[in-house]
Amino acid sequence: MTNILVPIESHSSVDSVLQTALLIARRFDGYVEGMPLGPDLPDLVAFDMPVSWTITDQNTWKELADEAHRKFEAFMAAQGVPARAAGQRGLSYGWTGERSFGDSQIGSYGRIFDCTVLGRPGADRGDPRMATAEAALFESGRPIVLAPPTAPTALGDTVIIAWNQSMETARATAMAMPILRKASKVFVMTIDEFRSEGPSGEHLAELLQHSGIAAEFVLRKANGRNSGEAILRGVEALGGDLLVKGAYTQSRLRQMFFGGATSHIMGAATMPVFMTS
Fold first, then answer.
1. What is the CATH number of the domain that holds 82?
2. Hey, is 147 helix, strand or coil?
3. Are residues 186 and 72 in the same domain?
4. 76 and 32 in contact (C-beta within 8 Å)?
5. What is the pLDDT of residues 153-201, one digit of tens each?
6. pTM, entire model
């Protein structure tokens, strides 16, 4: 996790996003690259937009990008992180883009980074957008880390893998191996009522132990909660500071109508969440 992408805009969780990215960077002596983020303009609106409105909008986007740049650099300077020089390795930061990138561009740009750090999506005005998270999740081919609304103080010391035997969670676990190897404790947690077909959590924990990872299997009961609630309650009970989970192990359409663990966690997690699709 030595190259970390951080899209920046003025949403309610921006301070937590910056702190989460820095925690990862410090853990891996890594490079954090900031970029200005803004919502995509619908094609139809852009097509019908008067020329004067377009110019004003472009100027506004430039101003928002400049504001994001100032916020990012001020944070890094306050934390004593140096700007990256040519050929430099180790803890550092950089910036890309003079105008805001739209949500749809985040995924493609994130393909060359080890992870993209974003704010946990919310329903209130001013919260991070679900469109941003889903673009990074489905278009980058790389993991995302969702920062909670309140900035975390630790990340990666006690890691919880929400193991449900799915392909998506297997992929998330594989991509999280650099974090797992540095963790003081890793819990492979299975919710008894929400298992699927596949290798057991006991077996996964055993293989992680063979890789030198301090892993332990934990089986928990849902006790009437839905899968997302049960997972988050389990993470809190185990003192986890990072949750590793595959995203949308049920289809997105099904989760839109019936709910699901990913949808609940994306709306309610109070700790950073490492996700892949």
1. 3.40.50.620
2. strand
3. no
4. yes
5. 999 999 999 999 999 999 999 999 999 999 999 999 999 887 778 899 9
6. 0.89
